[in-house]
Amino acid sequence: MSIYSIKYNIDAKPLGIGGAAKVYGCTRIADGERLAIKILSDKNDNGKVKRFKREIDAIVDIVNHGIDGVLPILDYDKDDLWYVMPLAKSLRSIIDKYAKLQQTAIPVTTYRDEILQQNVEGFIMLADTLKKIHTLGYVHRDIKPDNLYVWNGKYCIGDFGIVDMPTNTALTKKHDRLGAWNTIAPEVLRDARNASNKSDVYSLAKTLWICLSLNTSGFDGRYDYNAPSMSLHDMPHLENAYLLDIDELLYDATQEDSVLRPSMQDFAERLYEWQRTSTDFEKKNKKEWGFIYKALFSGFAMPVVSISDSREIVRILHFFSRYTRLNYTMMPQGGGLTLKDASISPEEGCIYLYFGLTFVCKPTQLTIRGFKDDESWNYLFLELEELKPILTNGVDDEELVEDTPAHYVDSSYAVYGVYDYDSGNKFPPGWKQVTRVCKGNFLIVSKGGFYNSITPTDDGRQSDFSEAEFFDYITAMKKDVDNAKNDTELSCVRHKYWTNPKQILSFSKMDKSVQKSDYDIREHLGDLNFSDLLDGTGDGYAKYYFTFDTLAFRSPFDFYRYLYLCKDGSIKKLDKNDDNIFYAYDKNKALSLLEQLNQRIADECTKHGVANANLQCWANIHCMMQKMPTHFFTYNELNKAILAADDRKDNVVCIDEEGYVVVACDVDYHIFPVSYERFGAFKNCVGPYSNGTAEYIAKDLCSLFLEYIKTGKEARYTEDSDNRDIKEIIRETKMLLNNYKDAAKALSIKNI
Questions:
Q1: What are the φ/ψ torsions at residue 138 (nearest 5 degrees)?
Q2: pTM of the entire structure?
Q3: Is there a single domain that holds both residue 275 and residue 259?
Q4: Could you tell me the pLDDT band of residue 508, with boundaries at 50, 70 and 90?
């Protein structure tokens, strides 16, 4: 029996299995503390035995030198070949945790700052620990997520199974395979005896990338911040993050030639630099522009660079899009978005610009302007050649579908992926929805720069300038800002540039046909009478009453009092249960009355010179139960009605007074006692191309229907829903309907 079995209760399942040993969770019998024990698997292999003993010696020696960034050995037996250490969380498990969280993270950048800050702080600790270990003559040679841990709130190093010691006894042979393939330094891969301090630098850099990217597969060779397969900028969860210092560190630390790699001290210092810079806007701006000049123009910070070749333009924009702080793109016709990428379009001379939306344009020249004294004023100006519209003459841009390369069609039904709503003829594979820019210019400025701080500058004004004119314009603006002595003067500068200087506002084009009138129908509602329109005959399942909305401020004291149509045809402010309220009992007559009420109001306003009555007052219809419904809609009925609806207009899913599903036009839903929320046109929530709507609204609709039959009042969707299981809601609804079934034809709301 091994000695450890006397001291520790060992878990049956190992926590990890390595090439020479297994690690188990265990419980120390003396005090119940949870720990981890590493046990050599093959005790007959002389080489493995020697390495295991050397690992124990190395860890004990390092810890005895006061280095606290190493998982200590708490107990060991070099004869029985085991040792006990704290039970710590590996970086691999932390990567797996965040990778799992990312699967459901909305937005995708939810954990971005946490991942960056936690790992940068942790890898500073690791670099500092490795630096100290190296001073003792040790090289770890197996830095990877599985061998790094978080213990007592600190990133620590463990598993020294293949450590290179100052008293090396030549255990390592030339062709020995040491370390993980995705983190091992190339010189160690070629000859394991070539390991040096710089080998650990390489492996630590590769491990940092794995922890930040959440990609445990790693990457081959040197880090390339331009390669989509490895660039941290292309990781969705790191979008908009400041990464420059990390980019450069990974690039330098993964060089083939170990001599050119930074030291472990430099590794830590450059991560410190990231921490300092990431919270300093001006510093980030300056450094990123410096890097752009270095990467694109061999380090020359030229005051102006002009490029006309479309492929070179795409290369520059692709690179620039990674630096989101410098990248707020003013669109040719107004608005602004962050450029995400650029590529060549199959249309002759054109390029794609990606903003989440895809734009097609034909560039003539890209101009990059630099201001040495303040890079926040730097900008990119993309001038475009005018394109002939495809479908509509005279427009500045068109929403189209590119169904085949460089061929465009109407995009009216792109949300459904079809050419035509009625036929359902599908677009071919590879189609894309695009905005084709026919004229104008793009402008890219710093997000935190002064120009972008003036809200109206996203009005597309750059399209009214040549690049040279715009340079004069923004130079004058910068001069005014530089001369401003305080916030008040700076506000004056903003006001000065609030409007486009080339925009001529003409009030002569205003519609002179609009008649001005002091008449306000809201002041004369008491004079109106609709008695000649009223018809209270009929015997339906519901009864209908009418209220009047105005834009006049309603006093809080009038909150429960509304303007109602009364039995005598007048409009009065009444309590909701007042006996004077008029009810219509026939749905068709009620709808006709609603139309007549609004028409008479409009006629009255027109008579007094008011152009649009709806700006002052309009009538609404409301529904109440008259008789208990005799039907309870089914899921199949609901789904069928949704699929049969026309998604080209706004719709509301309703339940009528008898209990049947109706999908109504947005403006008509008040005629029905039960309604779900509004589904906007072209949102693919209803209609033949929709899928799944019935499933997610069925419970809420059942709950609303239950509310209606219990209260007799309109039931409209709110965020507050019935938390019960849908089966329970259905059960209660059916019980109520069955209880009143026999008396349904005669039952009135007062009997409920």
A1: -95, 145
A2: 0.71
A3: yes
A4: very low
